[in-house]
Write a structure and sequence with these properties.
The protein is α+β, with helices and mostly antiparallel strands. The chain is built from 11 helices and 8 strands.
């Protein structure tokens, strides 16, 4: 999991949350982080039905409506089988796969579509559907960003179900240790190590904590006691050996 990409996602979420309705920011961020034409998210309800959570634009919204209506499409397959899938040229695909969905999607302007399962652990409870208005596969970076975004969405949906208020999802995902003095102390140390502003160092600390499945407070403690540090030259987080005190990746 890329801490740098997580930082990008959290910054985008904070930017979109102030303007978008609760949940919709996730679709806007998914579109931006993958640099595609649009994104939509569906979740599986208790009765096993798929329900649209959000869409980044009108075309993405209508594409998701097609998926739910026809029970075909990238998100449907991703949530059904738990694996990512793609059709990189919908026009050439007409009549072969998704016989109902594909021609309608082409009519809406989609030329390539992609689906990624949303899961927490082994449980798949939704899908991220992406489309582009030109044919072609995802780049390695786009694919990696989509997988990472699907992981963030999984946690975000659980956070929303817990009743987190509008504008607080990004903070909640990052641990939200706003009043933990140790986090700010560690951010000060990290800002020196990484040559960043305090604000950016705090975002970096929270994002890395998310990436390695630690609370921000626990990572802060490790930074303060110098068992963890960021090496500016290599761009790597380093861990101190408990015996000789030397650092390694």
């Amino acid at each position: 999991m890329s801490a740098e990409r997580l930082i990008d996602i959290f910054i985008l979420m904070a930017k979109h949350e102030s303007d978008d309705p609760l949940g919709s920011s996730l679709c806007s961020v998914a579109k931006d982080i993958t640099e595609l034409s649009g994104a939509a998210i569906s979740v599986i309800t208790k009765d096993g039905m798929r329900e649209q959570l959000c869409a980044s634009n009108n075309i993405a919204h209508r594409l998701m409506d097609l998926e739910i209506t026809f029970k075909e499409g990238p998100g449907h397959d991703a949530s059904q089988y738990g694996t990512a899938n793609e059709v990189i040229e919908l026009i050439a695909n007409e009549g072969q796969r998704w016989s109902l969905y594909a021609p309608e999607a082409v009519e809406l302007g989609a030329r390539a579509v992609f689906g990624f399962p949303i899961r927490v652990g082994a449980v798949v409870f939704g899908a991220l559907s992406l489309y582009r208005d030109s044919p072609g596969p995802l780049s390695e970076e786009q694919s990696s960003s989509a997988y990472l975004m699907a992981s963030v969405i999984g946690r975000a949906v659980l956070v929303m179900q817990a009743g987190v208020p509008r504008g607080a999802i990004a903070n909640e995902l990052q641990g939200q240790s706003t009043f933990d003095f140790s986090v700010h102390q560690a951010s000060g140390m990290l800002s020196v190590q990484a040559k960043l502003s305090m604000k950016d160092a705090l975002i970096m600390l929270r994002s890395h904590a998310f990436a390695v499945d630690l609370s921000p407070s626990e990572l802060a403690r490790r930074i303060i006691d110098r068992s963890t540090r960021f090496d500016f030259q290599s761009g790597e987080w380093l861990q101190a050996d408990s015996e000789d005190g030397k650092y390694g990746i």
